[in-house]
Design brief:
mainly alpha; 2 domains; two-stranded antiparallel ribbon; 4 helices; 2 strands; 66% helix; elongated
Length: 105
Amino acid sequence: MAEWQRGGLPARLVDINIIFWVYLFVYRSSVSVVSVKVPREVKVKMDGLKGLVDWPKEIREFIVRKIEEFERVRNVEVVENLLKNMPIQPKGSISRLVREDRESH
């Protein structure tokens, strides 16, 4: 009898249930819902592939990839603008700086 707790549920089941609800609360509180409208024909085709394709996962992964792609483009633009504003160094100055650094050790 000591193994049974809370409304006749086994202690292990109660522990799993608590872990599940904590996970569900933390997971659900850290995500947002995005609604997407698609033409009816597309939705019918999606429904036809329901068992083969995990549409929410595919859409989430697509959004993440697209964001990463745009961030890479933006980062390249930022670096290009920084480089554009830097003065041009005379030929051989990099070799001279590397040589000076090596000799100073």
